[in-house]
Design goal:
Elements lengths: L16 H129 L14 H12 L4 E2 L8 E2 L1 H10 L9 H4 L4 E3 L9 E4 L7 E7 L2 E7 L3 E6 L7 E4 L2
Parallel strand pairs: 1-2
Antiparallel strand pairs: 3-8, 4-5, 4-8, 5-6, 6-7
Length: 276
């Protein structure tokens, strides 16, 4: 026996047999109840998979249908995007082609316009040459038959303003021909005539068409130094020069010859006007 057994507070109380039996019965009842509950749960659990197994094929089929439908929708969307892309590409190609066609059409129109202008210029030049040739033929015929008017050789004994004009134009011989120029180093035909008359205080129009009607029309058989000679019709002349006497004239002919002195037979004029 322990040396503390005689102390009451250290002794373990003894359980009675009746209490032990009662507790055993309660425990047995609880265990029995748990066993029944477990068996019921096991039975329910065993029956539940059968129900799920029966419903599983239906759920799987629906899911497969949804997946297939989603795939079809995705494919249709992709096809729509591809169609839109093809339409955009076709529209861009058509716009580019239209732009190219327009540029070609404009180029052809410009070429046609330029050709028409060149053709009109050639026809105008041909008409001028024909007019000059006709005038020369008429003058030559008149001179050869001795009938009608003839071109006068005049005289170089000019006086006053006429002499000043003659002196000026002769002093310009050898200078260059430049279209639109009025001196002092270069002239065109009407620029030389205008500048010559300016030396004596006479203001003439700038272009040959107007200079051909600036004075009194005179016959080629009655020319005097200082008269203005013109080629082409009065009011539509394409060239002018100054008669300097003795059957000679001075004019700015063209870019290759410049200002020259030539006999009337070199290029017979169509008419003449007298300003002084």
């Amino acid at each position: 026996m322990s040396h503390t057994a005689h102390i009451r507070s250290h002794r373990k109380p003894r359980r009675s047999a009746s209490k032990i039996a009662m507790r055993a019965g309660v425990a047995g009842g609880v265990l029995g109840t748990l066993a029944v509950t477990g068996a019921s749960a096991s039975s329910a659990s065993a029956a539940e998979p059968v129900t799920q197994t029966l419903e599983l094929p239906t759920l799987t089929a629906d899911l497969a249908a949804q997946v297939a439908q989603s795939a079809d929708a995705t494919q249709q969307t992709a096809a729509n995007y591809q169609l839109l892309a093809e339409r955009d590409a076709a529209a861009a190609k058509a716009a580019s082609q239209a732009k190219s066609d327009l540029a070609q059409a404009q180029k052809k129109a410009e070429e046609a316009k330029q050709k028409a202008a060149e053709e009109a210029a050639r026809k105008a030049q041909a008409a001028e040459r024909a007019s000059r040739s006709s005038a020369r033929t008429a003058l030559a015929t008149t001179a050869s038959t001795g009938s009608g008017s003839t071109v006068s050789t005049g005289t170089s004994d000019a006086t006053g303003s006429a002499a000043a004009i003659v002196s000026f134009v002769k002093s310009q011989v050898g200078k260059a021909y430049v279209s639109g120029a009025t001196g002092p180093s270069a002239y065109d035909c009407s620029g030389l005539v205008q500048t010559a008359f300016r030396q004596v205080g006479v203001s003439l129009p700038r272009v040959s068409q107007d200079q051909s009607t600036a004075g009194t029309q005179v016959s080629l058989s009655d020319l005097q130094p200082g008269d203005i000679l013109y080629w082409g019709g009065a009011g539509s002349a394409y060239h002018v020069a100054v008669y300097v006497g003795d059957g000679m004239f001075v004019g700015a002919q063209n870019p290759s010859s410049g200002v020259v002195e030539r006999p009337l037979s070199y290029d017979q004029p169509t008419g003449a006007v007298r300003v002084l």
